[in-house]
Design a protein that fits this description.
single chain; alpha+beta; 1 helix
Length: 60
Amino acid sequence: MRFHLEVECDETAAETTHRELSRILRYWAGNLRHYELTPGATEKIYDSEYNESGSWTISH
């Protein structure tokens, strides 16, 4: 099983990028327990302004 986390980061605002990525990682680290971690599972990821910013996926 592989866990793929893909987040699009804004290269121009380093401080904001670090803050958003930290928030996303904390949120999903705690939230994964609500999902079956089986191949094919996927979910969209949103930033603090609720804009889609990536996704995670489980694969073989």
